[in-house]
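Journal club side-thread
Mid-discussion, someone asked how the predicted structure for our own chain would compare to the paper's figures. Pasting it here so we can look after the session.
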Amino acid sequence: MNSKLVVKDNALIEASFNLSLIEQRLMLMGIVEARQLPNLTLNTPIKISVKSYIEQFGADKANGYTQLQTAVNTLFDRQFSYFDESSNEKFKERWIYKASYMDSKGHVILFFTPTVISMISRLYANFTQYLLDEVSDFKSKYSIRLYELVIKWLSNGKTQKYELSDLRAKLGLSDTEYKTMSLFKANVIDRAVNEINKKTDITVSYEQFKQGRTITHILFKMKQKPQSKSQTLSLTDKQIDLFAKKLAQSAQFQTVYVAPVGASVEEYAQQIKKKLKQPKNVQQWLPYLQEVGYTS
């Protein structure tokens, strides 16, 4: 699958957890692999090639096997907490319930918990998606988490105001880590923002809010980087016709560009065709196009 699309329920995007950089990378590759499987269940093994991991993240070959083995062992004990809107309750859950690692086979195998399975596969719910390549060069675990939090709000141009303790929990910090605001900003926020701005297709800034002299909330602003003319994507008439039909049948895409009430699939495809004639829409819908087979 060329697009390597990471898709997460927004409850998982907004969850609080502390995973190392390697553990996060492992989970992201697991999600990409899992979404290619036709029937993802509790008993479905998610196989991740050590070679693919090294190539995706530019990991050190000498240490790649050891790093993944350690990550599998620690991931087994990791938990995350999330808010479930349907029950109005907060829950704790594990990422995986079973795992295997064998040096001789050159891969790891993960078995996701039912909650994780539902959070990466129920496309009728609110979800966030992005390309794995966008976060592959990150060297800070906080950069991945902040990127996920802000990309969810990209169409708005800004996030909600995150209360400081809530933001720290979502980024995976304990109460004893970077306790002062200056350390938190320098080692977590500023480092992550700088890495996102340098290595991804968006730019991020943030605004601080105070009560008296104390910073209590942070709001992030983000926007897509402008594309040069050489980077501008456009489709041929034949491609427009082909991918309009495919997008018209994509459940994911239908949450982004809603079909007119009462429109048939053919009528919906015609509406999409008109939009795909504009390069800005091709660029904006690129992850969905790649999901249905487009390669640039």
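Post-session note: The two ends are 13 Å apart (CA to CA).
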